[in-house]
């Protein structure tokens, strides 16, 4: 992909670490740190995860967290502690994960704009696939948020969270493309352990709404929407980022909060 002088440049990385979920999350944090320090340009990582149960720091502080971690593992999902807030979310090999780090001199002032941009990319990509994509919280959804992307305001397909640090912001999103059933099953047991109420019927996948949609289809649609807004330049993770991620990896293990 070639840079375009009329669009802002955005580095695109497609490397994922499905066999090392905590390390994959640490990579996103390392990129965020390095973007904040001015060592890396704005970067988006679009990758395919494995079976993960992403807990927030709020979840980790809950009394039911150890039981929730056990429930996640019992359902075949590896628990990790993610960067953004919110509540527990599940994703698997039928999902696409997006981690977007942008420099920001005053990151708190652009929170809504970043949410609007990322939700707009995902909802527009879903419309390309024939989904009636809408942005907004669904009553009873897991990990509720004002910027969730749904099918018709009925079924959540993507969750979006954000973390800000001095000098930069990270937006994380996960789109469930295929096979929502194991995600619902895992979340039912995890939310029970955390004593959180939700409605399992609100969790779905793109192929429920647009039958036959594949991960390749969804990835192509997201890349098309990103490419309409940015000059994408493909890149690989560098040694410094990987080394920093190795240092940060233990922080994303699901040990209880002190």
Brief summary of the model shown:
The chain is of the alpha/beta class. It has helices at about 20-35, 55-60, 65-75, 110-130, 180-195, 205-210, 215-230, 240-250, and strands at about 10-15, 45, 50-55, 80, 90, 95-105, 135, 150, 155-165, 170-175, 230-235. Strand 1, helix 1 and strand 2 (about 45) form a beta-alpha-beta unit.
Descriptive report:
It is a single chain. With 258 residues, this protein is α/β, with parallel strands linked by helices. The chain has a single domain, classed as 2-Layer Sandwich (BirA Bifunctional Protein, domain 2). It has helices at residues 21-36, 57-60, 65-74, 111-128, 181-194, 206-209, 215-229, 239-248; strands at residues 9-13, 43-47, 52-55, 78-81, 89-91, 95-103, 133-135, 149-151, 155-165, 168-176, 231-234. Helix 1 crosses helix 8. The N and C termini lie far apart (46 Å).
Task: Write a concise keyword list for the protein shown above.
eight-stranded mixed β-sheet, 11 strands, three-stranded mixed β-sheet, alpha/beta, single chain, 8 helices, BirA Bifunctional Protein, domain 2, 258 residues, globular
């Amino acid at each position: 992909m070639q840079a375009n002088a009329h669009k802002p440049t955005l580095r695109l990385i497609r490397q994922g670490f499905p066999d090392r979920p905590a390390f994959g999350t640490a990579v996103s944090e390392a990129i965020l740190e390095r973007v904040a320090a001015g060592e890396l340009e704005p970067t988006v990582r679009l990758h395919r995860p494995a079976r993960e149960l992403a807990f927030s720091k709020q979840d980790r502080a809950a009394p039911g967290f150890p039981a929730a971690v056990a429930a996640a593992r019992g359902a075949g999902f590896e628990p990790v502690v993610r960067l953004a807030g919110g509540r527990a979310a599940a994703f698997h090999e039928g999902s696409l994960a997006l981690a977007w780090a942008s420099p920001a001199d005053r990151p708190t002032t652009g929170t809504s704009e970043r949410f609007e941009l990322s939700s707009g990319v995902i909802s527009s990509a879903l419309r390309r696939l024939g989904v009636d994509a809408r942005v907004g919280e669904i009553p009873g959804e897991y990990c509720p948020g004002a910027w969730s992307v749904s099918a018709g305001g009925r079924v959540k397909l993507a969750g979006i969270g954000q973390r800000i640090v001095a000098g930069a912001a990270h937006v994380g999103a996960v789109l469930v493309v295929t096979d929502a059933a194991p995600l619902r099953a895992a979340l039912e047991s995890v939310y029970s352990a955390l004593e959180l109420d939700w409605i399992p019927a609100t969790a779905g996948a793109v192929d429920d709404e647009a039958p036959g949609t594949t991960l390749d289809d969804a990835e192509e649609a997201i890349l098309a929407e990103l490419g309409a807004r940015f000059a994408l330049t493909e890149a690989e993770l560098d040694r410094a980022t990987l080394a920093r991620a190795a240092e940060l990896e233990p922080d994303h293990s699901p040990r209880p909060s002190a």
